[in-house]
Amino acid sequence: MNELTTVKINPPYLILIGSEDDATYAKTAFGIVQWRPELVAGQFRFPGCTVDLGVPDMSIEDAAAAGVRSLLIGVAPVGGSVPDTWWAVMEAAARAGLDVVCGLHVKLTDQPGIVAAAESSGARLVDVRVPPPNLPVGNGRKRSGRRVLMVGTDCAIGKKYTALALHQAMQEAGMKATFRATGQTGIMIASQGIPIDSVVADFISGAAELLSPDNDPDHWDVVEGQGSLFHPGYSGVSLGLLHGSQPDAFVVCHDATRTRVAGWEHFSLPSLTECIELHVAAGRRTNPDIQCVGVSVNTSQVDAAERENCLQRFADETGLPCVDPLIDGCAPIVERINQQFPEKT
């Protein structure tokens, strides 16, 4: 990947939790610890904070002495604003030479105090939701290597977790694989990537091409998906990512209990068959050989006694392996990939 055109985050991390008392708003922090524990050195919490990531508490001074390279804002407060008490911590980190990384809507580079602190030490201020400059328009040319893209029947349906679980399963199977992050939390987990949903529409496919460049013939890029082709508000980012990724394979992500588009309840969700057919039809524009290799199903709200029957119904409908990646893992999907692409794996 061209590092000049992607967001890059330097590990190890100190994760700022502040005084958060609701784990729901610390999903970014928990996701990083779950999927990339080796990147996390510790957490910074204010006295009385009840959220605990299960990693050591560290001061800014301790972190700097231990060789920590980045302070990450690990929570998303209501409204997306940063509490005043946090700015002093971030300025101290920048002054100590730690990069400061923010995935919120507020931009670090708009804050004079932290800008001055970073300039004094040479630390970087990384606004994850700001895409790199000079992104090209997609050219659609075939690239070497293989790609598998996560797609969804809706937004917020498990594309990131599926990609991470599939990447893990491919590595465990001895395959060459790289997780390619396209969203703020994914970028913090991978320590690099492009925030595709913040790219100007004309350049989405070009950004996706840069994110997944030429590679060895037997190497797989596991591309985190965004949005949904069926979403009335966010379909544009999904189509650009589909065309630019040129996936050889894709995995459909679905919530077993969801029937309407979340937040747009006047729209129903497509069937899995309809979802697969549309992605094949649209994806053939840049990869005529695109294939669906599996279905990832969020069964967290399904009664345990009904879970297997639920997955079997989806498998019967699609003729594909259907798994809940957080319960079953993704080995059946990896097996399907090896069956459908034997000459490259």
- What's the CATH H-level superfamily name of the largest domain? P-loop containing nucleotide triphosphate hydrolases
Largest sheet: 6 strands, parallel
Compute the separation of the termini in Å.
21 Å
Structural class: alpha/beta
Strand order of the largest sheet: 8-10-7-11-14-15
Q: Ranges with pLDDT <50 over ≥5 residues? A: none
Helix proportion range: 25-40%
Do you know the CATH topology of the largest domain? Rossmann fold
State the helix count.
12
Tell me the CATH architecture of the largest domain. Answer: 3-Layer(aba) Sandwich
Number of domains: 2
Element-by-element helix/strand order:
EEHEHEHEHEEHEHEHEHEEEHEHEHH
- Report the CATH C-level class of the largest domain: Alpha Beta
| Rg | 20 Å
Chain-averaged pLDDT: 93
Anisotropy-based shape: globular
InterPro entries: DgcN-like, DgcN-like_C, DgcN-like_N, P-loop_NTPase
Domain D-glutamate N-acetyltransferase-like C-terminal: 137-334
Domain D-glutamate N-acetyltransferase-like N-terminal: 48-131
Organism: Elongatibacter sediminis
In words, what does this structure look like?
This protein is α/β, with parallel strands linked by helices. It has two domains: 125 residues, Rossmann fold (3-Layer(aba) Sandwich); 199 residues, P-loop containing nucleotide triphosphate hydrolases (Rossmann fold, 3-Layer(aba) Sandwich), CATH 3.40.50. Helix content is 33%, strand content 20%. The protein is built from twelve helices and 15 strands. The strands form four sheets. The protein has a six-stranded parallel beta sheet, with helices on both faces. Strands 3-2-4-5-6 form a five-stranded parallel beta sheet, sandwiched between helices. A two-stranded antiparallel ribbon has the order 1-9. Helix 1 links the parallel strand 2 and strand 3. The longest helix has 14 residues. It is globular and about 55 Å long. The mean pLDDT is 93. This is DUF1611 domain-containing protein. InterPro entries: DgcN-like (IPR011669), DgcN-like_C (IPR035086), DgcN-like_N (IPR035402), P-loop_NTPase (IPR027417). Pfam families: DUF1611 (PF07755), DUF1611_N (PF17396).
